[in-house]
Write a structure and sequence with these properties.
The complex is a heterodimer of chains A (112) and B (112). Chain A is mainly β and 112 residues long. Chain A is built from no helices and eleven strands. In chain A, a hairpin with a 6-residue loop joins strand 7 and strand 8. In chain B, 0% of the residues lie in helices and 53% in strands. In chain B, the strands form two sheets. In chain B, strands 2, 4, 5, 9, 10 and 11 form a six-stranded mixed beta sheet that branches. Chain B has a five-stranded antiparallel beta sheet with strand order 1-3-8-7-6, with no helix packed on it. Chain B is globular, with a radius of gyration of 13 Å. Classes of the chains: A mainly beta (112), B mainly beta (112). At the A-B interface, strand 4, strand 5, strand 9 and strand 10 of A face strand 4, strand 5, strand 9 and strand 10 of B.
Chain lengths: 112, 112
C-alpha cells in the first residue's frame, strides 16, 4: 500500500489559535484530499486539491479553513481561530493510479 | 444530500465463519464504491474497491455491488480475530475531484 505521511501526530492548541497540519502525499500525484473524523462519528470530506487549486469542498470547509502546497511535496491544512468543535482526527488522502484513496495516519487535534 | 447507511452493529461472528457487511447509498450517480477497515484510533485502511455490478473477490474478501438496488456488501470468509474492526463503506461519483462519502461504519467482532 502506498504511503502517506502526516505531521504532527497530535496537536494540542488553545481555542482561538491557528494550527497548521501537514501531509506528504504519495509522490507524483496531483490530487490530494483532507478529511476529518470527530470522535465516534463518521469520516467527513473537507476538500480536494488539484494542481495547486481547490477542486471541490464540502460545507464544512468554510472560511476558517485553507489548504496550500507550500512546496513541491508538502500540503498543509490551516485552521484559523480554532473552536472546541474542531477537535477531531484530520486525515489527508492521496490517490493511487486508480480511483482509490489511501489515507495517512492522521493528526489528532485537541482544542482546549 | 448524499447519504451512506450502514448498520452500526456490533456484528458478532464466530472465528472461521463468514462475516457479511451491508451498505446502502442514496446518490444514484455514485460510480465508485470502497470498503475501508478502521481499527480504533487508526486511520481508514483500504481493503476493497468495486466499480461494476456483480462480485469482486480478493483473497478472503468479496465485494458485491448492485447499482439498481443501491446496495454494496462485503463478505469476509474464514473470519479471524484480527478482522475485528470497524468497516467503513464509502462511495464517490468517480473522477479525481470527488471526495468520498462515508457511512458511520459497522463494528465487527470476531469471537475466538
Amino acid at each position: 500500500e502506498p504511503e502517506v505521511t502526516q505531521t504532527p501526530s497530535h496537536q494540542v492548541t488553545q481555542m482561538g489559535q491557528e494550527v497548521i497540519l501537514r501531509c506528504v502525499p504519495i509522490s507524483n500525484h496531483l490530487y490530494f484530499y483532507w478529511y476529518r473524523q470527530i470522535l465516534g462519528q463518521k469520516v467527513e470530506f473537507l476538500v480536494s486539491f488539484y494542481n495547486n487549486e481547490i477542486s471541490e469542498k464540502s460545507e464544512i470547509f468554510d472560511d476558517q479553513f485553507s489548504v496550500e502546497r507550500p512546496d513541491g511535496s508538502n500540503f498543509t491544512l490551516k485552521i484559523r481561530s480554532t473552536k472546541l468543535e474542531d477537535s477531531a482526527m484530520y486525515f489527508c488522502a492521496s490517490p493511487s493510479s486508480t480511483d482509490t484513496q489511501y489515507f495517512g495516519p492522521g493528526t489528532r487535534l485537541t482544542v482546549l | 444530500q448524499k447519504e451512506v447507511e450502514q448498520n452500526s452493529g456490533p456484528l458478532s461472528v464466530p472465528e472461521g465463519a463468514i462475516a457479511s457487511l451491508n451498505c446502502t447509498y442514496s446518490d444514484r450517480g455514485s460510480q465508485s464504491f470502497f470498503w475501508y477497515r478502521q481499527y480504533s484510533g487508526k486511520s481508514p485502511e483500504l481493503i476493497m474497491f468495486i466499480y461494476s455490478n456483480g462480485d469482486k473477490e480478493d483473497g478472503r474478501f468479496t465485494a458485491q455491488l448492485n447499482k439498481a438496488s443501491q446496495y454494496v456488501s462485503l463478505l469476509i470468509r474464514d473470519s479471524q480475530p484480527s478482522d475485528s474492526a470497524t468497516y467503513l463503506c464509502a462511495v464517490s461519483a468517480g473522477g479525481g475531484a470527488d471526495g468520498l462519502t462515508f457511512g458511520k461504519g459497522t463494528h465487527l467482532i470476531i469471537q475466538p
